[in-house]
């Protein structure tokens, strides 16, 4: 899709519509005023006619700058980490709450669970007018927020692997 077609599609979209898919290469050409209030963009690349998400979330405009809604949502059925999905998402929630208190640029918007899924979304205020700059900022904030949870997950995986190794070695 070229930028002219994309801008037209953005202007024709409404709050009720699904997020407009945008490839990363076009983000630098989109500013906050190109996106009507309530309309969001979903960042991904087309592969074989199917859009593959580059980032779990979406960009929205508040009229002057971009906001990024990040998702840390997972299916219980596909979760394979020994840490467990609830403790992992709980660590991300705690990091969002801490950053909200200390920096003030994030806000928890949803934290819920059902039999199949665990949902966590949070809003990142980017103070960026350009979509590419907002996307890069959102990725940096998301990575900082999720770093602690990933670190704990890796520690648990190492502990489980070490326990398996001890159990697999011959008893002396």
Structural description of this entry:
- With 172 residues, the protein is of the alpha+beta class.
- It has one domain (3-168): Yope Regulator, Chain: A, CATH 3.30.1460.
- Helix content is 38%, strand content 26%.
- The protein is built from 3 helices and 8 strands, in the order αββββββαββα.
- The protein has helices at 3-12, 85-102, 131-168; strands at residues 20-22, 40-47, 50-53, 57-61, 66-71, 74-75, 106-113, 117-125.
- Strands 1, 2, 3, 4, 5, 6, 7 and 8 form an 8-stranded mixed β-sheet that branches.
- Helix 2 packs across helix 3 (131-168).
- The longest helix is centred in the C-terminal third of the chain and has 38 residues, at 131-168.
- The N and C termini lie far apart (66 Å).
Poorly predicted runs of 5 or more residues: none
The portion of residues forming beta strands comes to 25-35%
How helix-rich are the residues, as a percent range? 25-40%
Shape: elongated
CATH domain topology: Yope Regulator, Chain: A
How would you characterize the largest beta sheet?
A: 8 strands, mixed
Order of helices and strands: HEEEEEEHEEH
What's the end-to-end separation, in Å?
66 Å
Radius of gyration: 19 Å
Find the structural class using helix and strand composition.
alpha+beta
Mean pLDDT: 91
Q: What quaternary form is this? A: single chain
């Amino acid at each position: 899709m070229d930028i002219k077609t994309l801008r037209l599609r953005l202007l024709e979209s409404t709050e009720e519509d699904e997020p407009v898919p945008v490839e990363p290469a076009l983000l630098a050409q989109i500013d906050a005023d190109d996106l009507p209030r309530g309309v969001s963009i979903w960042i991904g690349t087309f592969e074989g006619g199917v859009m593959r998400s580059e980032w779990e979330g979406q960009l929205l405009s508040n009229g002057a700058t971009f906001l990024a809604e990040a998702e840390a949502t997972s299916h219980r059925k596909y979760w394979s980490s020994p840490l467990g999905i609830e403790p992992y998402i709980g660590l991300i929630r705690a990091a969002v709450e801490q950053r909200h208190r200390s920096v003030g640029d994030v806000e928890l918007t949803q934290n819920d669970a059902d039999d199949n899924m665990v949902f966590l979304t949070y809003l990142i205020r980017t103070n960026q007018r350009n979509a590419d700059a907002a996307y890069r900022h959102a990725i940096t904030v998301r990575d900082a927020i999720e770093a602690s949870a990933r670190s704990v997950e890796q520690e648990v995986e190492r502990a489980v692997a070490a326990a398996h190794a001890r159990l697999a070695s011959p008893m002396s």
